[in-house]
Design goal:
Order of helices and strands: HHHHEEHHHEEEEHHEH
Helix content: 25-40%
Number of helices: 10
Strand order of the largest sheet: 5-4-3-6-7
Strand content: 15-25%
Distance between the termini: 28 Å
Radius of gyration: 19 Å
Length: about 220
Amino acid sequence: MVGKRKYEDGCAVAQALDVIGERWALLVVRDLLLGPKRFTDLLAGLPGASSDVVTQRLRDLSEAGVVRRRRLAPPANIWVYELTPWGAELEDVILGLAGWVHQSPRMRYDLPLSADSLMLSLKMLFDGAAAQGIRLTAALHIGDEQFFARIDDGDLTIARADADEPDVTLATDSATLLSLVRGQQSLDEAIAAGQLDATGVRSTVERFMRLFPVPGQPGAQA
């Protein structure tokens, strides 16, 4: 990482920041937590960052062993960036930071939210205890992006991919899904307004929504 400023401190926290402390670095990691992305898709998810900055962060993270680049097999045959197994371990750090900042009076809930951030919000809010004994798969189509959320007896997996034979499918936008999770809008209201297309048993859709309670705040985001 030529020219990169380092703390030159034996503290493990300082050395961790040497790896991921540069501006945009942790947000690049955030946007790769749910699966690989092409450079153009990664750049689109970081609208405040220039192409040169994202390129440099990817180079730094690659040299540090956090990110790697690979070509997908045919028929896709495209280059993508993805987290290494070590880089993927930053998920708990990122979700922890997201939960921590909700205690700040400066936390804003009026800013735009990407589909990736929304999915990470669901991970942060997930009530594993309430999901004991529940097994279901939800296909979440947020605009043009597709994710699946699989609940298996208290465990939650979310990834950037379509679901095979989902129990429920929700096609909507980030703002609408967030308002449903927050309880600011009902399923009937969202469907009537044309903001939500839901398939599956109604009680299963409602059960899925109840597994992401918002603790003590008007909303929650990653």
